[in-house]
Each structure stands twice: as structure tokens, then as C-alpha cells.
Amino acid sequence: MSQHSSAQEDTPSPNARMRSKGPTPYKAVLRSVSPDYPTNMEENIHELPPEYPVYYFFYGTLTAPATLQRIIDLPEEPKMRKAKLIGYALAKWGDYPMLINGDHDQEIPGYTYIVQTEEQAQKLAYYETNAYKEAHCLIYFVDDEEPVKVLGKTFVYAGDASALLEQRFDRQLWLHQMTGKLV
């Protein structure tokens, strides 16, 4: 056996060092999702422990810094980064855009902001109403800054996307709005 190979055996690999500290947040997310996660958001309901700060992706009224500032009570307009989501589509619910599952290559442009506290996240959820639910997503940045992509959160349509697209009564969303939870 050469000296080189015995030195390698004595030095733990970077992966072994990471395993000894427990799973990284990224690995915890990967372990909590189903294998078809990117193509099947409807069945992808996995609660992760809330960790702040966290990036939120916005695609509607919250892309305006002054609106976001007002909603989460910031002392000044927030710095937001241009970003996109892949695999989603937008549909209209009256005047409001709703994020729904899309084709695997569809892109939704928007902006991100790093939400600092659970209290800020609750204010966002209150603003978005029961017509939306919070969802985990992979955010891709479209600027030249780091990081280039992150796990984050966004708000998606809480009802039946097919009813929304067909512009018919959405019993699922109506029940959610009346009872405060999806059935």
C-alpha cells in the first residue's frame, strides 16, 4: 500500500465530515419530497421546519417594493432580486395572477426578497388570503449575483387549478375559504 492511499484513509472525506454533523437543510428537503416532486406539486405537501431568513418569490402585486414594504412593515423599501421559477404557469382569478403547475420548461418571471422572520411570513400569508397557500420552490436568479439558485417559498393557488383554468366554480377553494383549510 502506498503512502498516498494510507493518508487518504486517515483523512475523512468532505462528505463524511458533513454526515457526522447531520443532514444539511438541502438534504433534509430532498429527503422530505417524493421522487416526482418537480412534476407533481399537488401531492407535494411536506411541512418543513420554518427557518428564517428565507427567500420568497413574488410574481404579482408583491413585486412592487413599496407594497412589500407596507405589508411587512419595513422601515425602507426592500432590495429585491430579479428571479424566475421553472415549471409553473400563471392563471387569472379575476384580476389576480395565480401560480399553478405548468409545463416543465415554462418560466415565470418575478422578484425575490429575503423574509427575515416568521412574523413577516405571517403578514404575507394574511395579505395573500386563503386563495393562496405557501409552497416550497426552487428559485433561479437572473442577475449576476450569488447565489444563482436557492430553495425558497412562494404562494400558489390554493384551489383546483383545472376549475380555475376552465373558469368554473371551485368548490375546493370555496370550502377552504369558508373553513380556513383545504379539504
TrEMBL record:
Q: Which InterPro entries match?
A: AIG2-like, AIG2-like_dom, GGCT-like, GGCT-like_sf
Pfam families xref list: GGACT
Region annotation (Disordered) maps to 1-31
> The organism sits in which domain of life?
Eukaryota
What name is this protein filed under?
Answer: Putative gamma-glutamylcyclotransferase
Q: Where is the composition biased (Polar residues)?
A: 1-14
The record's similarity note reads:
Belongs to the gamma-glutamylcyclotransferase family.
Recite the UniProt keywords alphabetically.
Transferase
Q: Give the organism the record lists.
A: Penicillium coprophilum
The Gamma-glutamylcyclotransferase AIG2-like domain covers which part of the protein? 56-159
This entry's Gene Ontology molecular function terms read:
transferase activity
